[in-house]
Design goal:
The protein has 560 residues and is an alpha+beta fold. 28% of the residues lie in helices and 23% in strands. A hairpin with a 5-residue loop joins strand 21 (404-413) and strand 22 (419-424).
Length: 560
Amino acid sequence: MKRFYAFAAASLGAALLAGCGGRAFVSTPPIAATSYSASDDDVYAAVVKTTPDFRDLGRAPGSTKVQLSVMLRYQNENQLEALVQAQSDRGSPYFRHYLSNAEFNASFAPPARAQSQVVGVLERAGLRVVRTYKNRTIVEAVGPSAAVERLFATRIDYGIQAGNGPRYKNVTDAVMPASLRGLVVAVMGLDDLVAFAPHTQIVPRGDFPAMARSRLRGPNDELGPLGFQRAYDEPAVHGYDGTGRAIGVTMSGDINDVDLDAFLDYFQIKPAHRLHRIAVDGGRFGRGDIETTVDIEAEVGTAPGAAVYLYSFPDFKETSALDTYNAVVDDNLVDAANSSWGGCESFKKGRLGHAFARAANLIFEQGSAKGITFPIATGDFGSASCLHDRTLDITTADDAPHALAIGGTTLHVKADGSWESEVGWHGSGGGISTVFAVPYYQREVHHILAGGRNIPDISLSANPHSGFAGRWHAIWVGAGGTSLGGPLWSGLEAQIDQYVGGRIGFVNPEFYQLELGPSYHTVFHDEIKGNNRSFICQRGYDLVTGIGSPIGWALAQALK
C-alpha cells in the first residue's frame, strides 16, 4: 500500500509512539497570535449569505436573541492531519491507534487559555456563555443582537424565511474582532436561517393483505432489515449483529416509540438496548418525523446488538448542526454517526463563503483521530441536488474530506433477499467540491476529476420503489433516498466493528486502496449502469455511486 502521509518532523514519530503508550502525543505550544498570517478567515467572522428565500423586514430590534457557536483553532493542526492519515494506513505503526478524549485534548484541542480568552471577550461584549465542552472546541453564547452587532461590526436584520417563519441574518459582512483573531476559525449564528434539510424519499403503499407475515419484507412488500443484511451479505448473516458496539443518528427530530416497537415486533427483532436520546441545544423530542424514524429503524434493525444513540437538535440551522457534530466527538460514545440531511456547499458569496463546511470538516477530523466515522447522504436530486443561479453545486457536509459521502443505487434482490443486481440511482447526488481540494486518498484513483473533492465515496440502496419498509405513524411506507444509505452503512459498520474487534474509523483511505487493488470486485459491487443527469456510472469509481456498494462479509474480512 502506498503511504500518502508525511510527518512534519522526525521528532513527531517519537511523540506519536509515546502517545500510543498513553502519554500526550506532542507538547503543548504557547498561544502565539503572531504565528497566523492575516487572511479572510481571520478578518471576517461571517459574510452576507445569498438568501433569495429571505424577505428582509428591516433592522432587528436590539433585544433580538442571538445564539452563537464560536469554534476555536486546534493546536498542532499539521500534526493532527498527519496522525489521522497514519491511523488509516496499514503500513503505519499507528494504524487504528485511536486517541482517547484525554489524549486528544492534551495534544490537539484548543488550549485552555485560548478558551478562557474567547469566553472573556464574549462576556465583556455583553453575551452570556451557556456551554463549553471538554474538548474546548466550541463556545456557545447567547445575547442581544445589539451586543453582537457591536462585537462583530455588522448589522442584523429580521424577516421571514419562506417555509421557516421569522428569522434573522447579518446583512453586512461581520468583522472578527482583533481579540479573537488567531484563536477562532468560525463563528456560527450571525443568522438563524434554516440551511439544511433531510433527504428522505417515501412511497406510501398500502399493505398487501394476501402477504404472509415475513421477516424479509414488510406488509407493503418493501425490504426489511433482514433483506438488506442478505442483499449486502452482511456480517449479521454470519453471526455478528453489532454486539458491544454503538452507533448514532444526528437529526432534528425524534421517533415515536410505538412505531419502533411495532416495527421490531413485526420483523421479530429483539434489540439488546433501548434507544438512547441525547438533546443538543434543547433537542426536538416528542414528534416522530419520517427521517428520524427511518434512520433509527434501519440502524436498530440491521444491528440489533449495538447501542443506538439519537442526537436530536432543534432545527436545521448552522449553530445546531455544528454543536451536534461537536457533541458527538466530545462524548466519543459511537463508532459511526449518520447524517441523513445536508445543505448546499456554495450558498454564500464572497470571502469565507464556506465557513460551515470547513468547520464541520475540522470536527470530523477530530472524530477521525478518535476512530469515529461520519457517513453523510449526498442528496436526492442527482448532480442538480444544489442548483442555484444557474450553477451546479454539491451538498455539505458530505463534501468534507473526513466524511464518508453516501450515494444511492437501485437494488434488486432474489426471492430469498440475496443480491441480484444493482445500478446507479438517478437521484444519487454527486459532483466536485469547490471548497476542498482532491484529498490525498483520491489522487491516484481512475476517473477522479481534478478541481476538488469528488463525491460520493460509496453507495447503498436509495430508490424508494425498491426501498426500506418503515413504520411511521402506524402506517408502512417505502422509504429511500441517499439518506437511507447512511443508517444502512452505520448498521453494517457496527457489525464490521464487532467482527474486527474495534473501530475501523476513518475508512476512506482504505476503501480507495481496495478500489485500486486486486480484491476490489470481491468487496464492492461495481455499478456500471445508470446516471445522475450529469455523470454516468462506469467501471471503477464514478460520480454517481463512488466506489460502489459494499459486499459486507468480504469487506469485513478485508478490513480486519
